[in-house]
Write a structure and sequence with these properties.
Homodimer. It catalyses: (R)-pantoate + beta-alanine + ATP = (R)-pantothenate + AMP + diphosphate + H(+). By secondary structure, the protein is an alpha/beta fold. The chain has two domains: 175 residues, Rossmann fold (3-Layer(aba) Sandwich), CATH 3.40.50; 95 residues, 2-Layer Sandwich (Pantoate--beta-alanine Ligase, Chain: A,domain 2). Helices cover 38% and strands 20% of the residues. The relative contact order is 0.13.
Length: 285
């Protein structure tokens, strides 16, 4: 596993691999790796000739009162995990420095209008601008053929797909199913913030999504009734402070007025200071 910190070196490494006909798979992460990340790496390994994993805690996707300073960082553990699970099969671990990605005079940002303003964008108005900007920069450094994103961050991967299409980037975006804990909680680096009581309470988010899914699959067509039941169900857990729960079109993220085709049920909530998100896609009978 080769470690690269310099963006120019990363670019040259990828260009050399591409010149030899190798397909490059890229897994961008912010570290604090877990089984969810490993599922992305597994898929990249299966589909690619050269796998690049990046670890970069992106400062511009955090709001002024968010958790950038306390976001979990344990590079030693991340390296150990990648080496122990994959041996020498991860080709490159890319570790760019913040000063190389966003120098002091940096002033160019990418905003995906529409998609970036819905769901999480309502309470985190600058978040997806930061995500799109850093992902574009990483794509320019790594030059991947394939990039892998988890379905837990559904809105994020939808925004990245839109950016890739709008800007004619030669990258195929691959979505990988959400990996869950034993009780259904979606794996997330932020789960490490939860104390035991909060961790136990957090499982209600997935159960709430399943409740909505069951309602839809059993034939309920009134989206307002479904959302009311889900909100009431989440309200039985006093440690959970709901940010939103919505039924939306899975392609546009517009609120659904009529249930047909496919629907996305998405939730965001706080447990203490920790914000968690989750979603399920449902086929409407």
């Amino acid at each position: 596993m080769r470690e690269i910190k310099d963006p120019r070196e990363m670019y040259l490494c990828s260009r050399k691999a591409g010149s030899h006909g190798k397909k490059i798979g890229f897994v961008p992460t912010m570290g604090a790796l877990h089984e969810g990340h490993l599922s992305l790496v597994n898929e990249a390994r299966r589909r690619s000739d050269m796998v690049v994993v990046s670890i970069f805690v992106n400062p511009i996707q955090f709001g002024p009162r968010e958790d950038f300073s306390r976001y979990p960082r344990n590079l030693k553990w991340d390296k150990k995990l990648l080496k122990s699970v994959y041996g020498g099969e991860i080709d490159v671990l890319f570790l760019p420095q913040a000063s190389a990605v966003f120098p002091d005079d940096f002033s160019t940002f990418v905003a995906v209008e529409g998609l970036g303003e819905k769901l999480c964008g309502r309470s985190r108005p600058t978040h997806f601008r930061g995500v799109a900007t850093v992902v574009l920069k990483l794509f320019n450094m790594v030059r991947p053929d394939l990039a892998f994103f988890g379905e837990k961050d559904y809105q994020q991967q939808l925004i990245i797909r839109q950016m890739v299409g709008d800007l004619n980037l030669p990258v195929q975006i691959i979505s990988v199913p959400t990996v869950r804990e034993f009780d259904g909680l979606a794996m997330s680096s932020r789960n490490a913030y939860l104390n035991p009581a909060e961790r136990k309470s957090a499982a209600i988010l997935y159960r709430a999504l399943c409740l909505a899914k069951e309602e839809i699959e059993s034939g309920e067509k009134d989206h307002k009734k479904i959302l009311l039941r889900v909100r009431s169900f989440i309200g039985t857990e006093p440690r959970v402070r709901l940010d939103y729960v919505n039924l939306v079109n899975p392609e546009t993220l517009e609120d659904i007025k009529e249930l047909k085709g496919k629907a996305l049920i998405a939730v965001a909530a706080y447990l203490g200071k920790t914000r968690l998100i989750d979603n399920l896609t449902v086929d409407v009978p």
